[in-house]
Design brief:
Elements (H helix, E strand, L loop, with lengths): L2 H20 L4 E3 L7 H14 L4 E3 L24 H11 L24 H4 L13 H30 L11
Parallel strand pairs: 1-2
Helix pairs in contact: 1-2, 3-5
Length: 174
Amino acid sequence: ASGAAGFAQARYVADLVRSLAAGGSRHVLIVNGHGGNFTLEVSARELNMGSPELTVLLPPMTLRSKGPQIFETAGMEVHAGESETSVMMAIDASPVGDDRVDYIPPVGREYLDYALVGDISPEGVWGKPSLATREKGVRAFESRVSSLCDYVRETFDRVATLKGQAPPVLTPSS
């Protein structure tokens, strides 16, 4: 999300976390799978600083899969490129069309602080979706889930140690 929508998203997430905390939750994981963490980072920090008993994790968008590189355009994409399109194809290929426009703008990601993706890229694409495949998406999704689980366990444990608290007992859901 970007612009006003991004800040509305951040307010909504903060309200949701406060409701969870009021109900007794002390550990909250926010997984944002479509960019826009820059709008959520301030909310996560404010929630953590304002409620010491609460730990809100917002894994960085830079959290990468372990193992060999899957995507040719790794590090060059922001929106609707090879990686997002591949993962979407793995989850549900029906919204992904056959005509895919490749476009990498001549500016860096920091320009999203000044303009919307649609202003920077005429088609809203910031990457190379023509390189996307379902197989890459399956590999990336499985690897990202594994990396995320490792990150969550490690980070909740480290934060608990920093706060002088016992680490949470995390149990996988079935």
